[in-house]
Structure formats: C-alpha cells, structure tokens
Known about the structure:
The structure holds two protein chains of two kinds.
Chain A: H1 5-29, H2 34-38, H3 41-51, E1 66-69, H4 75-85, H5 125-139, E2 145-150, H6 157-168, E3 174-180, H7 189-192, H8 198-204, E4 208-213, H9 217-225, E5 236-241, H10 264-274
Parallel strand pairs in A: 1-2, 2-3, 3-5, 4-5
Chain B: H1 3-11, H2 32-40, E1 46-50, H3 54-57, H4 59-65, E2 70-72, H5 77-88, E3 93-99, H6 100-106, H7 108-116, E4 123-127, H8 145-150, E5 155-159, H9 163-174, E6 179-183, E7 205-208, E8 213-217, H10 222-234, E9 239-243, E10 246-248, H11 252-261, E11 265-272, H12 277-288, E12 294-299, H13 309-315, H14 320-331
Helix pairs in contact in B: 2-4, 2-9, 5-7, 10-14, 11-12
Amino acid sequence: xxxxxRQLRQLADRAKFVRTETVRLTRIAGAGHxxxxxxxxxxxxxxxxxxxxxxxxxxxWPERDRFVLSKGHAAIGLYPLLADLGYFDxxxxxxxxxxxxxxxDHPDMKRIPGVDFxxxxxxxxxxxSAGMAMAARxxxxxxxxxxxxGDGELAEGQIWEAAMSASHFGLGNLVAIxxxxxxxxxxxxxxxxxxxxxxxxxxxxxxxxxxxxGHDLGALLDVFAALPEPGGRQPQVVIADTxxxxxxxxxxxSPDWHxxxxxxxxxxxxxxxxxxxxxx
Amino acid sequence: MSAQDQSEIFNGLKDTRSADGTxxxxxxxxxxxxxxxxxxxxxxxxxxxxxxxxxxxxxxxFAARHPERFVNVGIAEKNMITMAAGMASCGYxxxxxxxxxxxxxLCAEQIRTDCAYPGLPVRVVGHHSGMSMxxxxxxxxxxxxxxxxxxxxxxxxxxxxxxxxxxALLRLSLDHPGAMYLRLGRGRDPEVYDxxxxxxxxxxxxxxxxxxxxxIATGSEVHPAMEAAELLAAQGIAARVVDMWxxxxxxxxAVLDAASSTGAILTVEEGNVTGGLxxxxxxxxxxxxxxxxxxxxxxxxxxxxxxxxAALYAHYRLDAPGxxxxxxxxxx
Lengths: 280, 332
C-alpha cells in the first residue's frame, strides 16, 4: 500500500521534532550525542508513529512489541517521542542529566515508562532482543522485537553471538536495524574497523537482509511493510544507509561531532537550520 | 550410569574423592537439573540456559522434561547471560549455568550491567567453581568469582553446601527479586544437611557450637570445616562452625557474635583469600572495633597449578587435616 502524502509529512515532522528536541534538551546537559541521533531520526519516527504495536497507557503490556535501543547513547532522541506519545509528561525532561534524574545519556528501563531495556554498553542489545524474541516464542505471543544497532557497534563480538543464535533458533520475530551512519568516535567506520559488507555478513549468519536509504521515509515504510510475519523462522535485518549528523551541515559526516555542545549563537543557528523556532 | 557419573566422565574428572578425601561416587550432589525440573512442573516462569555444558551441569536433566523451556546457546556465554536478562524482562525466571570462570569472570559485565543494575531476576549459576576442575588448569578455575561478584551492587551471592542445600537455594531464588550468583562445586560435596534447610538470606547457619574458635566456611569447604572441628576437638580445641552460604548479603551478626563469644575466627574458602569470603568477614570485624584474632584461609593469591582436585585441596590445606593444622598453627 503506498504511503499517503499526509503520513509522510507527519513522519517528517516527527523526525524534525526528534532533531530539535535533541538540540533543546542537550543544552541542559551541556554536551550530547547530536549526530548519532540525527542519523536515526527518521527511523525513530517510522518505528514509533507507524510500526510498533505499543500502548503508552500500558507500558508493561505483555503483548507489546519490544524496542531495544542498542546504540543507547541515542536515547536523547527517544525521550521526546515517548513523552509526545504519552508515556510521561514532557516537563519531566527538564531534569535531563541533573542529579538523580531518570533521564541520563542512556535509557533506564526501571525509571522511564516506554523503555524496554537499559542499554549503553554497546554490543549487548541484540542478545537482549534475542532473549525477548525467545520469550515471545515460549509464551506463544506474536509480538515483534526490534533492535537498533550502530555500524561501529558491529565490531562488538557479542552481536555476532546473538546473530548466530537468532537464526539457529529461528527467531523470525526479531528485526535488527543497523543505523549505518558511517562514523564512530575516532573516525570513519571503514577506516577504524570496517563493518562492510554488512548485508553479506548478516546473510552468512542466516538473516534476511534488507538495505534502504535510512532518511527516505517512503522507502522505510515500504521495507517494514514487506517484512515476513513474526511466525517466520528467519530473523530480519534492515540496514539503513544514513548520514551521521543529518540535517545540520556542520555535523553531517563530520568526525568532530560525535559529542558536541551547541550554545549561544550556534544553538540558534542550528535550530533555524532545522527549520523551527524553539518551543517554550 | 548415574547422571553424576555422566557429568564426571564428560568432564574427565575421574578422581571421585571430595575435598576431605571421601569417596563420593554414591553421592548424587549434582541435582541442579532435576530439582529445577521438579519446580518447573508448577512454576511456568522457570527457564534454564546453558552454554554447551548441559552434560556437565546436568541442565540436560531439565531439558529432557521441559524441552520447550530449555535454551542451549552453544559456547557463547555472554549471549547466554544477556539473553537471560532479555527473557527476565518478559516475566521469566532464568537460570543460566556454566563453569564459574566463564560465568563470573567472562560475563562480569553482562551480570553487572544487564542483570544486577536493572534488577532483573536472572540466576547466574557458576558451577565447578574454585579449583574443582583440577588438571584443566587456571583457564577453568574460578578463584576470583566470590571477590568479583560481591563487589557488584544489587547482586545476591550465595554458595551451595551440598545437594539438599542447593535444593533449598533454588527454591529460595524463585521469588527473590533481583539478580543472583549461585556458586556450585562439582557435585562431589558430601552431605552436610540431611533434609532441606530453612534458608533466610543474610542469615548464616551455625552447624556446630564451640567457644575457642569459629570457623566460618562456605560452599565446598563447609564439610571439611566440620571434619576439622572434630580433629580440633580431639586436641581440646572447641570450634564453632558457621556455614556462611550467604556471602552477599553477609551475616554480619554471625561474624560479630563469633568475635564476642569465641576466641578466634578462621575463614575458609575454595578461592583467593584476596577479596572473597575472608575479606568480607575482615571488613565487618575491623570496622566493628573487634580485635579478635583472625585469619583468612584459602588460596594465597596465586594461580592454582595442575593436579587432581583432591591433591590440590591437600596441597592448599583446604582438606580437614589442613584446616585443623592451619587453625592450630596460627592461633595456638
């Protein structure tokens, strides 16, 4: 089914919301992972406003789809969406990174409704997701588990333990998404520790790969719509080609912006570039 | 052939003597799989995972009765612990078992970050702990696991003394909120408890009374400690024996009572004296101001050499005569 213009505009608006909220909230912390969020803003929008079977009124609903943010440092982009969907009041985010706040750089499942697992240590999320998918099988539930990984993160060996086990166990209810934004901290992934060829690597581990432009909302909707039913026996991976820092010229594919701080005139300029005035 | 024998032959451990030299072939101590299978009949939350060691830890006994609730991840221990955490987040109570070294050392981060920190009810079972893998050498020994695990906040650390004690620990764990590390031996521990003991976390079990000396032991060293108390009694030294199976939370009252009511304290563990049970007891003692004569007994901060388990226990004086000798030499 072709996605409607209206739906695409709504999703584009939500992706922009992720970017502008990230800029606004990071100012509270004084530093943050802007660029790692900007590469997956469209992915967040598609997952939370189109794909995930969730109910903000019942964050512990056992039949809900699960989402594991394995690249946990992108949490600042997730929090505003959870608030917008009604998991908690947006004003709670004013405490971001303050002493004792539930909202830190990485998500906390015990204190934030809507967060399915506490992440931050790279390489664990796919194992978590395989466990959740296994639990779905054991309990006879048809929920899907989605796991968002980074391309630099693919150097972590535990991911490949999980990948090997997912196909061995026939976890067709598991969908990994790789935010292939090409950059880590010390430079381009291809120079530091090359992750490519990502499709072939996952395919060799028994997964069904899909490759897509991670900023093309229509293409993203199509790839998710084409996924087999969760009852299938082959885990699925969506490799999204993205641009780290997408949306802000000075950040796009720049190795200097993994962690940054926008203040003063820089803050205003970037918000203007993203196309909004600051919400009060 | 018994399940125990299958386990031992698989591990190549033909020496069936326990730490104090008892021939243990008749002792069915490795009840882990069967006991969980029994409990799982009425508790749908229980799942068991292993990393290709089902023949060693007898998880296969569970798998035979509940195949749909058993997960073998192959030789991928990190995946096992973290998958268990994912399953726990969905309402299951997972028991994930592998050798102590691969549970606690290899997976220390997974235990801390994926299980303990989010407060998930994962039961990490480290079996064949200490030097019980004998001639397999250091790669398969875990002298450091008690020390490492007890420094993790929100992780309960317990040691199984014998088969009945293990059964009681497994039952205790079912409704315990939060993560646990269960340290098991190789299933050759002679009987200490002839029935299932009533266990309360944070409360040690005093097995024998005496006013001259308290031996605080855990796990595989409890039975030799009891035998050592007999040897000491023949020398006119009356020893209290405390089974400190609850390493974290430690029974501080038991330690302080031993300090005020008995003449000396000796801790005994199948592990490095640095950081484990002995260090935990020392912390309580010294901060309390008590100046009771005290010594930690275990492996003296070295890698254990190759050798059959019984020979190693004798070498490190972790058998009954060794413990009694250490007590006599140090305190008398």
